[in-house]
Amino acid sequence: MLGHKMKTYAFVGPSGTGKSYRAQMVAQSRNIKFIIDDGLLISENQVVAGQSAKKAPTKVETVRNALFLDEAKKKEVQKAIKKYKPDSILILGTSDKMVSEIASNLGFEKISETIYIEDVATEDEMATARNIRKTQGKHVIPVPTFEIKKQFSGYLLDPLQIFKSTGKGNAPYIDEKSIVRPTFSYLGNFTISDTVFKQIVTYIAKKNKNVYSVPRITIYKHKGYNDGIFMAIDIIINYGVNAMEAANKFKSQVKKEIENLTAMNVLKIDIVVKGVNFKEEKK
User: Fold this and answer.
1) What gap in Å lies between CA 222 and CA 98, rounded to an integer?
2) What's the pTM?
3) pLDDT-based confidence at residue 34 (cuts at 50, 70, 90)
4) pLDDT, tens only, 71-114
5) Is 50 left (phi over 0), alpha (psi -120 to 50) or beta?
6) If you compute the radius of gyration of the chain from its CA atoms, what whole number of angstroms results?
7) Residues 77 and 36 sit within 8 Å (Cβ to Cβ)
8) Cα angle vertex 128, ends 125, 131, to 5°?
9) How many helices (H) and strands (E) does the chain have?
10) Which secondary structure element, helix H or strand E, spans residue 34, and what is its range?
11) Which CATH number fits domain 194-277: 2.60.120.10, 3.40.50.720, 3.30.70.1350, 1.10.760.10?
12) Where in the chain are the domains?
């Protein structure tokens, strides 16, 4: 057991019917701050602990991760629960048996209330969700885009901004979700325009006091390297700074921010200092 009293709820529905899509609405209607979905512990739109089952290379591993059968992953979530001591938690699953097993594996109290997808979604809405899952391989996780990207390098599809009303007389809320494609799905590719990377680099340069401007940015891929990008960047540095240190620091910033903001792997960055700015003002 976890050492403190916590009410356990369950949200049950067949795979692909839109549970994760509606999880925040169900949780908010019952003032539940913590959600367990596909191996993740989520609170206030942030991933608190766990590793998404959708990152698993096979469907068997996906099930193991979702049920917290791995001892290390289970302890990570239990540790977070003990730290935050939530009053209640919502477990998502495809069956009553599944949510009960998750609750048992994590040492939770027995489930006190179960909400079914049919209670909050129409047949047409569930059919649409099934079709999207079947034809596009998309899965919605109830956390903001930037929170989940690190776990899906190369598999993030796009953010979905949703404006939902909680019901008559209640205030609407805005809830951003991430749509991801499981790693074991081979339906389609994920691409990002070079312009996105260039805009990120330019923005980082403006915030860097050592870099005056970035006159050239080249994004390319090497044959045989399909899991990431290569970059060549020319920079103009400000007078008085160490060129090597400035270039290395800028390289680290670019790699970190691009990987965080786009979920793409940056395999190599070549930085060339093309000149020195002797003026005080910065472009």
Assistant:
1) 44
2) 0.55
3) very high
4) 888 999 999 999 999 999 999 998 999 999 999 999 998 999 99
5) left
6) 23
7) yes
8) 150
9) 9, 12
10) strand 34-37
11) 3.30.70.1350
12) 7-180, 194-277
